[in-house]
Amino acid sequence: MSTEQTSPRDAGFTPTGTIASATDRRRVVFATVVGTTVEWYDFFIYASAAGLVFGQLFFAPAGEGFAQILSFITVGISFLFRPLGAFLAGHLGDKYGRRLVLMLTLILMGVATTLVGLLPTYAAIGVAAPILLIFLRILQGISAGGEWGGAVLMAVEHAPKKRRGIFGASPQIGVPLGLLLASGIMALMAVIAPGDAFLEWGWRVPFLFSVVLILIGYYVRRRVEESPVFLEIAERKEKTRMPIVQLFRKHTLLVIIAALVFAGNNAIGYMTTGGFVQRYATDPGGSLQMDPAPVLWAVTGSAVTWLISTAVAGWLSDKIGRRTTYIIGWILQLVGVITLFPLVNTGNVWLLFTGLAILTIGLGFTYGPQAALYAELFPASIRFSGVSISYAIGAILGGAFAPTIAQALVQATGSTESVTWYLAGMTVIGLIATLLLRDRSGIPLGPEHEAEQAASPIYGLSRA
């Protein structure tokens, strides 16, 4: 069956046969951008605080060096629970709809983030403080594991066939927007409450601000209609009884390869979103000892370049295909990896920003097309499970412990050269995984094309 054939859904029709309006589609794009921005703001606020203050406030008895490693480990621990969030969200999303999952994950993330801002430190309640901190980070991980799949499917499944890349980039740009917002508010608080004041109370304000953002995100998301692909599945009564079982019975290798594609991007992205560069540049015992405020502003500026390149890559993937866009992205990302630390190690904040800006161009090109790529890999009946679990596994293999690994490498070798080799290796893994996949840009997404969607997109395996 040719991928050029289109269903009413692919031509822009809803299951009832009416044409989906441009207003409906704009509302979906706006809702996915706002919702994912709020989710990732919450997630990145934690990572930023882990790099700047959590080591001192929650893990100080472990000693200065090991306390920071423990702080970064708590960033990674949440990733281990992303598959749980993905499994739960995938099951609920494939059986009860994408919209329900988006509401639940948003609320869970907001509650966990706000409670971190209210949490007493080790000096106040002892070992209970880091235990509670880890528990709340786990809740963030469960939420993040379920959020992404729902957001990207709402965007891509509402999109016209020839614009899935740019529609799919809408939840993707929520990540750099979340980083921009998180780093910007942290930088602002570092100016308003410098030094000891930041340690005492300044770091808490961004966490408490999450309450406002969650209310905004909830209001926006509740106005969005359910995915038309899911509505078609429901009308046809073709919902899979155990979508996760079906996914791993028929598509285990595809899940692994898709996860490795994301791992190659995620490990590099977590140099900033995981707080490593911020900590490395500002470490009082390190070689650079830069002021936190300008470093945070540099990270904020790099989030803008990441946002732009992500949107451009999504748009470009509609023109030249997902696979080709990714290949360009891996080359650009490798250039960014090689130039990052030589520029950071100058100790000049403008050169630090330049290094991050170059890096984020490649990051955007290996992230912008991901939503459309993933959605086009899996059959409609198990798509939520497929994209969510692939994403969660890729996050564990890539970003989960990337800041911890980088910190340990620097402490063991005394230089950042080993970190560069580590990041270059992850980039090459992502490239190889991409080369193993056929480009399925434009394949029909509706349930009436399930047989075509189920054909393996992996080179060397049968299409039928």
TrEMBL record:
Gene3D superfamilies, alphabetized: MFS general substrate transporter like domains
PROSITE patterns in the record: MFS, SUGAR_TRANSPORT_1
GO MF annotation terms: transmembrane transporter activity
Record field: transmembrane: 66-88, 100-125, 131-156, 177-195, 201-220, 251-273, 293-315, 327-344, 350-368, 389-413, 419-437
Any Gene Ontology CC annotation: plasma membrane
Keywords for the protein's UniProt record, in alphabetical order: Cell membrane, Membrane, Transmembrane, Transmembrane helix, Transport
Classification via Pfam families: MFS_1 (PF07690), Sugar_tr (PF00083)
Major facilitator superfamily (MFS) profile domain span: 28-442
Main location: membrane
Subcellular compartments: Cell membrane
Topological type in the membrane: Multi-pass membrane protein
Protein name according to UniProt: MFS family permease
